[in-house]
Amino acid sequence: MSTGERTHGSVWIRPVRTPRAARGQAFTQNDLANTAIALADRDGLDALSMRRVAGELGITAMSLYWYVDTKEQLVELMVDRVFAAQQAPVGDTWRERLRSIGRDTLELYRAHPWFVHALGRPGTLPGPGQLSNWNDHVRALTDPDITPRLEPQHVTLAVGTVKNFVFGYAVNPAPGVLTPYAGHPEIDQYLRDTVLGNELEHLRSLAGIRHQFIEDRFDSGLDIVLDGLHARMFGSATL
Fold it and tell me: What are the chain's domains?
């Protein structure tokens, strides 16, 4: 097969194959995605396999190949299913709606810890659920009923900036080295001992903000992001 004839590996342009009724196949792609999501939520993405998903559905692993060709295509279905379940942004202003997007995205990452590692894989394409999610964002932020509304060319900048902030926060939710690690006192103790034992005085000075919760820093950081977007899109007008 020549380079020009090579087939893209995305599940969304995969030729449709109809499962043989004689084999008792009665599953949809959503059934596969929901089952795989439940497994990944419980055990992580690395533990996910075609065999395990098939076992949960009560079919053979080979039967899954009627629906997807690879595990990567299965992950594509999972990502799109999660996007499809997202609610449209809410709020009376563009800032409130962007904040809604930020908070909802953080909750998504918390509900599905594997999700942040499943985005943007080589060969993947946005599916119908993800495209619908994007459509909701554009509609919400260019809504003529909010003042000021965003221009279409600003929507990608605004949403992308907010989501990049949340992505970084989800990957490293405790950027301050003296921030307590919820549920992991041994990690917190290790960091304290290392800072104190190596006389890292400047880091020790951060100990006074240990009472601040992760939630507070997320909201404060998101406010800074929104302030920056306001300055970029609307200049010096009142926030």
Answer: 7-82 (1.10.10.60), 87-234 (1.10.357.10)
